[in-house]
Amino acid sequence: MSLEASDALLEPRRARLVGVLIDELAAGGRESLHLPMPQDPRLVAMASALANDPALADGLDEWADRIGMARRTLTRRFAAETGWSFAQWRQQARLLKAVELLSLGGSVTAVALTVGYSSVSAFIEAFRKHFGCTPARFFEAGGGLLQAKKKPA
What we know:
Elements: H1 3-27, H2 41-52, H3 60-67, H4 71-82, H5 86-103, H6 108-114, H7 120-131, H8 135-138, H9 144-150
């Protein structure tokens, strides 16, 4: 089998693995893996762009200008529709994308920079605060959350 054919077979396997991981994490009832989306079409466009590329550096002022909404209105409507502040939601989006990239075998350094953290140590600290463990421990022995789900409450 050629290298190209091998890579072509590996991609669907990775996609299925990520799908199973996401299903298992969702079944665990972990609220920490939830990313609420707004309903307003302008806010949906903003949230989708940030979820797809969490490293985008634009702040509230830039987004407000881009989607044609006053900053204060954006702030209020985003919180009303998602239940979270823009900063909280953005961090959640970054961490969820990080889990996805790490599950695909990305290095902690590459993932930290890809999702928009300025340093690896800042990423590891944010990850640890949110999930209760470092990225390495999270995926140890089949996945930290999968293991945590199996423990008696």
